[in-house]
């Protein structure tokens, strides 16, 4: 697989951040046969060693959960599928108002959207995590959000590639 094909296929695994796939490929970290684990390890290493500003940019590239982009239908296909799987596309007016309130407070507090790997979670699980994490300090929440971004990337890669050789 050449660089262009790799970036085309995996550039969106880290939300709107193809530089991670580009750097992993350019660093010689990508070897065939591709597995979810190997590609994730390489891309996560690039993400972890990126500057704080670059990682913040990746966090900010994520949509609010059940937010404006979801309502207007502008989520990426991956985000749309992930949010729908957790029932976030079927919120009551009251639940939607609570998500909006928490999204706004969270972004005002931390400067990036609340990020959680929603696969396997319900809307109630997500709300509970939201309400707990909003009380975290900024450094702790930055680290938690980065960990969640890596988890989302791993789940996306697992849907695209076999886990082992």
From TrEMBL:
Positions of the Oxo-4-hydroxy-4-carboxy-5-ureidoimidazoline decarboxylase domain: 1-158
Signal peptide: none
GO molecular function: 2-oxo-4-hydroxy-4-carboxy-5-ureidoimidazoline decarboxylase activity
Catalytic activity line of the entry: 5-hydroxy-2-oxo-4-ureido-2,5-dihydro-1H-imidazole-5-carboxylate + H(+) = (S)-allantoin + CO2
Enzyme Commission designation: 4.1.1.97
Keyword Secreted appears in the UniProt entry: no
UniProt xrefs under SUPFAM superfamilies: UraD-Like
Keywords: Decarboxylase, Lyase, Purine metabolism
Pathway per the UniProt entry: Purine metabolism; urate degradation; (S)-allantoin from urate: step 3/3
NCBIfam families hit by this protein: UHCUDC
Protein name in the entry: 2-oxo-4-hydroxy-4-carboxy-5-ureidoimidazoline decarboxylase
Organism of origin: Rhizobium rhizophilum
This protein's encoding gene: uraD
């Amino acid at each position: 697989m050449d660089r262009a094909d790799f970036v085309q296929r995996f550039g969106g695994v880290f939300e709107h951040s193809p530089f991670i796939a580009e750097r992993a490929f350019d660093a010689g970290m990508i070897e065939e046969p591709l597995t979810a684990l190997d590609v994730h390890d390489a891309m996560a290493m690039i993400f972890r060693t990126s500057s704080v500003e670059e990682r913040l940019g990746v966090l900010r590239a994520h949509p609010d959960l059940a937010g404006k982009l979801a309502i207007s239908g502008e989520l990426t296909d991956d985000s749309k599928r992930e949010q729908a799987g957790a029932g976030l596309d079927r919120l009551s007016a009251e639940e939607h108002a609570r998500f909006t309130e928490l999204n706004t407070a969270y972004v005002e507090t931390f400067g990036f959207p609340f990020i959680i790997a929603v696969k396997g979670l319900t809307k109630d699980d997500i709300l509970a995590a939201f309400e707990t994490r909003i009380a975290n300090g900024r450094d702790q929440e930055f680290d938690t959000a980065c960990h969640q971004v890596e988890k989302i990337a791993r789940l996306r890669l697992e849907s695209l590639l076999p886990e082992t050789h």
